[in-house]
Amino acid sequence: MPTLSDEKRSSQPFEILLDQTTLAKRVTELGKQITKDYAGRKPLLVGVLKGCVVFMSDLMRHIELPLEAEFIFAASYRNGIKREDDVILGGGIDVPIKGRDVLLVEGVVDSARTVSIILHKLRKQEPASLEIVTLLDKPASHRTKVEVKYRGFSIGNEFVIGYGLDNTQMYRNLPFVGRMIDR
Ligand code: IMP
Ligand code: MG
Question: What is the CATH number for 133?
């Protein structure tokens, strides 16, 4: 007989894509790689809210370097899975980034419009270097050319939630990455 929790789980509109162990292992690896690549430097992490929130808090604890963390707010006006094109940027970075080694931290790169717009904006302030680290990348969905230096996982053109990512602001607190399923 199915238990209540089985029943509850199977009625959810998503299924697990990347579990907690898989995520933790990969985030640790990314932190190690960044630690190595930025040895002797003091990177400035710029998180793209809100999707970066869980990933960045885990990732930065695996970067064994002095670092600074800033945040920028980006919202794409999307009604759940349906996509529209406007990207709204907000907030700002409190420190000058001229001459800094900047690492943009994203939860997911989809069309790559959001990161492109932010990169363009930051580049004008002449950082010494500017790279992207994203937990998830959907390379087949890119609509603008962008170089993603560090990616946790490449995924297909599917809508994912959890570990900071939302569907209409819900599910950010799930400790795993799930894939939304149509029922
Ligand atoms: P892009 O501008 O199309 O690359 O989209 C980036 C933004 O769209 C991300 O910062 C997310 O907020 C949102 N997004 C894109 N794909 C997904 C997804 O699969 N799940 C949740 N949010 C997504
Ligand atoms: Mg969103």
Answer: 3.40.50.2020
